[in-house]
Amino acid sequence: MATVPKVKRRNIVKPLGKAWGKTIQEIVTEAALKQARFELRSGKHVDKEEVDVVITTTVHMSFPKKGKTITGDGGVKCNCTSSSDSAGTVCICVGPGAADCDCPIFVVA
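and the corresponding structure tokens:
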């Protein structure tokens, strides 16, 4: 029987502001650096010059509408970023609607 991976979830409810793209870029970069350090310690990359990592991120956005027309940009509700280490998977959701956002769980086989 397959074991269910451990998933730790953190919700950080805070405004992302108009520069939300830069904020999300910083979150993804921080998660990727942690993932790369974990991969390097694992010994998998001894003979390689680079450590390639995959960071899963999901952006939840909302758009106001009137009838059948989108009337503007409601902004980013939250961004969820997932990375893994020896303890399991960590999904961090950041944004004004982080408490209500879902962390997508991806199983890599």
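(Above: one complete record from the training split.) The helical segments are 20-41.
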